[in-house]
Amino acid sequence: MEIYSRFTIVAAFIFWLGFLPSVYSYDVQGKISVAPPFSTAKKIQVPEKHQSSCHKEQTSQSLIVSNDGYLQNAVISLKGDFKGHPSQEMPSFTMDQKNCNFEPHILIVPENSSFWVANSDPMAHDVRVFRDADMLFRFEMDVSEKPVEKKLEKGTYLVRCGLHPWMHAFIITTAHSYYAVSNEKGEFALNDVPAGKHILHIWHETLGEAEIPIEVTHSIQDFSYTFPSSIQNA
Length: 234
Known about the structure:
The protein is mainly beta. The protein has helices at about 1-20, 20-25, 50-55, and strands at about 25-35, 45, 55-60, 75-80, 95-100, 100-105, 105-110, 115-120, 125-130, 135-140, 150, 155-160, 170-175, 180, 185-195, 195-205, 210-215, 220-225. It is about 10% helix and about 45% strand.
């Protein structure tokens, strides 16, 4: 009886060890950069009819690289389903139209959750949302109009303004919370990543995408990935 009890305890301990990695979670932080030489953000000449409201020039949001090579607006995510880690519902997800641009340039939203499109500009906009080449819907927004509520299933969507052709952005709807967008210093953070082996997916609208294997056994604060020179993509 005593031998059986000891065997049961040992077996239970081994079973517990086997599931130990899924119990722990850690933060993954890092920076995304571009190899030199890298191009500066393009300046877009605004048509004369829009200059009174949108200035003579706008800065393209398609490729923004800092003076020391760090990349803004890269999307970093864990590849996989992670059904036990759904995206966290937040009070509000809003994409605003401000200074003749969409803000933020990339909006991360849990799938099938409401988000809002607002207009803080002193002029009208014509919002158009695409998936691949298909326009899913469009709506006009006048000055001071109330934000428009929408929902989208999982996917990546391009947002454009039909009146101001330089205006574009992306809405990415996700099934889990392990997504981040790099800031102006190339920095990102994924919180509470389950211990274990993962594939880190990195996407940028101009530079393309990459998949990097990582193993999370502790908090990672110095992950880095460098895209090839942006000159060829400028």
